Amino acid sequence: MSQANLLSPPTQINPPTALALSQKAPLILSHSPTSSLPWPLSLLFSRETPESWTIHENLFYSALRTGDETSARAILERLKARFGEQNERIITLVGVFNEATAKSNAELEKVFEEYEQILREDPTNMSVRKRRVAVLKSLGRTQDAITALTVLLQNSPTDVEAWAEASELYATQGAWGQAIYCAEEVLLMMPNAWSAHAHIATLHYLSTVSNNPPSLSSLALALKHFCRVVELNDSYLRGYYGLKLLTTKLIPLLSDAPQSSNKRGGNAQDDDDVPIPKLATVEKLEELATNKLGEIVRNASARKWMGYDEAEVIAARELLDRGGRIER
Amino acid sequence: MSFLGPILNTLGALFLTHAVYSAHEHTTAFSSSPLPTDITLELLFSIVLLSTGIVISAQPLRPIETAKWAGQLSREGRKPDGQYTREGEAVLSEGDPYAFLGLDGGLGKGEGRKGFWDARGKRKEYEEWVRGKGE
After folding, report:
1. What residue in B sits closest to A193 (Cα-Cα)?
2. Where is the EMC2 TPR-like domain (chain A) (predicted)?
3. Cβ–Cβ under 8 Å, residues A46 and A99
4. Residue A234 class from Cβ within 10 Å (0-12 exposed, 13-18 middle, 19+ buried)?
5. What is the pTM of this model?
């Protein structure tokens, strides 16, 4: 369930939540966290905590989203007064403000020029580099955004967030090979991230689903990654959903295929040696995914398990209904 | 069960204080004779009570296995843990540590990554929602 919490906002903010978040602005703006007393006293009587500034930043984002520019500007002034205008993060926030208030593409281009100017003075400002990519994406110049992102990644190859962004950008272009490569880089740095495993499995699946017949090795790889998701997180809805979807696809394919290709690591396979799973294994996985999905859907509908997104639960129920065997 | 811990702790603290006080009185009154057994026993008893009370009133342990721990995060979501910041925001329990990757919502959905936040797109989405509601 998405709660309107400014300290740790939900991962999915829909418009009603955004509205609830930005309506907290008057309350937060009414008390300044910094003290107005002269210097030595201000240290003693300050009310600020690290959390206050996280709250301010999140409020800034939601105020911009709901078009509450007065509040956004007030927060920005407060942050500037506290951290100085030369602070990298403040420069980025000013940029975000300009982006959000840009009325047309021409104005957005102007913001882009400002970013170029900032980067000429200080090429190490990574967050401004990221903003540059975001502006290019917003202008619809996805190819340029990808180029800018690859330059960023050459300079900072351990930036997981940027690799994840690159993976999604490539995926929007239908460049599945590159998207999968970027997602694998994310996994290199965060091998336990279940969402990253689910992402890469989705990419493998999408890369082949429009082909007829779909490539068996891609489906097998997707299945492998979804299995890893389930291994890392025993109640991740997306993992079980993918597992169910894939196994229902794989079972007819495997039972139709000649017996020789069902052998593990068959030598007549494609150039990459992905072992094709046995039919019995896939059937077992299908059963497991169905059971677990049913359990999740039941408990989430009964409001016992509150961690799931409603839309995802509805999608899972539809998938189960399509399968035609669910006891609710 | 939640009241058992504090009760044991209070009793234990009382016995401990009493035992220490008695020991002090005894040594000032009869400094040459050894400490009576009942004081020693009371001291040991108070320590047992206190230890049990502290163990009982501890927070529930987190699962050791990654899969169980992650599953618990997924099932329960983030809940207020009873503390509030000065601004009145509830402090939430631990959430998905990989949420910042923005890969949770599927392709092109979700909040995305903070560093690449799509200011105009999110704003447009909100405006459309407001317009849709007004009609």
Report:
1. B98
2. 110-204
3. no
4. buried
5. 0.83
